[in-house]
Amino acid sequence: MPIPRRAAFTLPLAALPAAAQPAWPPRPLRLIVPYAPGGVTDILARAVAAGLGSQLGTQVVVENRPGANTIIGTGAVAQAAPDGLTLLMASGASTVLNPLLYRQLPYDAARDLAVLGIVVETPLVMVVPPSLPVRSVAEFIAYAKARPDAVNYASVGLGNPIQLAAELFAMGAGISMTNVVYPGSAPSLLALAAGDVQVMFDVIGTSLPQIRDGRLRALAVTTRARLPVLPDVPTIAESGLPGYQAATWFGLALPRATPEPVQARLRTALAAVQQDAEFAQRFSDLGLAIQPPREPAAIEAYLAEERERWGGVIRARGISLGSAP
């Protein structure tokens, strides 16, 4: 029986005969990276862009839009046309933490953005100076409890995942630690190695060289499972704080109003990039944890878990960054 003329116009793009489908994408895509060029995030974004371009048969142009704690670049994508041609190198900071930390943003991350995939998690590692007389999480907790208000931890700013991981640990362990803010990872690690502060929850990629040469001691990693780059270092969860988990993440997002057939095509292309062996090896060697492709419902559950975890820490500790810059 022929399809009524009116109903034919309601069919999604994927249901049309191949010959009737308009070519997509009609032009190169933009991948907006809300970070400055040159860092690991930028390197990751360019690798993702190259892989997507290969899968889609077009160019994906990387555009760095740093500033305002990722708000500038994230807002540009949230307000872009929902045609699938403007993508965001999203992160936990841009989509989960900022909405919890700022009183008002120029976009609503949950309403305006859809995360297509979590590409990598960036594990953190709990590191102490070799001069500190502790060799395990349990010993560190005992050390801190014996010295109330005398233990300091290094961070790189309020609301940063490094600070939040330390506060989550302190809450779970029932200890008090004071945040000492440094202008970046390099000075914070120098202060830690010198014993000016007692602990740091650092991105594993920056701490790994100093762990390997003995300038820092790794007590535990913050992920659910041990890491291949530090196989002998236990997780915090197995070290006495069951359920503890903390990691930053990076993925791909786009305007939520983008038609589902376009989102599906992009998800398929991104999944192929994530499952590429060369891609996975390259970033595993940098200390990143490659994530498997997830269905949309699983991604939403992942984000909900992140919001619950960090929202609890932020509210309990009264952390706020005020109005958006």
TrEMBL record:
Secretion signal span: 1-20
Keywords: Signal
Pfam families: TctC (PF03401)
PANTHER family associated with the record: BLR1237 PROTEIN (PTHR42928:SF5), TRICARBOXYLATE-BINDING PROTEIN (PTHR42928)
Similarity remark: Belongs to the UPF0065 (bug) family.
Protein name as annotated: Tripartite tricarboxylate transporter substrate binding protein
Species the sequence originates in: Belnapia mucosa
Organism taxonomic ancestry: Bacteria, Pseudomonadati, Pseudomonadota, Alphaproteobacteria, Acetobacterales
